[in-house]
Amino acid sequence: MLTLTAEQVQLLRRMIGQGFEVVAFPMFERYIGVRKGNCAVLLDPAPGTRFRFYTAPCYLVESHLSACIEQDGRQWFVWKGKRVEATPERMAELARFRQELERLLEGSV
User: Fold this and answer.
1) Are 43 and 8 in contact (CB under 8 A)?
2) What is the residue extent of each domain of the chain?
3) Which one of 17, 24, 31, 40 is most buried, counting C-beta atoms within 10 A?
């Protein structure tokens, strides 16, 4: 069971106000899942008032956290044998997700 500080709860509320969703990833119930569009990340409540990335932000494949790999000269987001190509549009969405989330975590939004 996670115990969050009042500051962490407030930060999650700010994220929600910016269009992020707090989601559960059953295999990772110790962490806070945050999603926006087709991207997600697991956050680890840090001591005190903040969160830190437990995983790198990633693109979702069939609503699951994925890994980005290179195969045959192309990049793919993969999860358990399923894959979607890491197109420039998907990579740009992931970069925007990461940048926006980092700004929120740093308190500059």
Assistant:
1) no
2) 6-106
3) 40
pTM over 0.85: yes
Alpha-carbon gap, residue 25 to 47, rounded angstroms = 22
What the block records as the tokens of 34 is 């945050």
Q: Is residue 53 within 8 Å of 41, Cβ to Cβ?
A: yes
d(CA 81, CA 39): 19
Sign of CA dihedral 11, 4, 106, 54: negative
Nearest CA to 30 among 44, 40, 17, 18?
44
Task: Judge contact between 101 and 57, C-beta under 8 A.
Answer: yes
> What is the SS3 assignment for 2-59?
CCCCHHHHHHHHHHHHCCCEEECCHHHCCCEEEEECCEEEEEEECCCCCEEECCCCEE
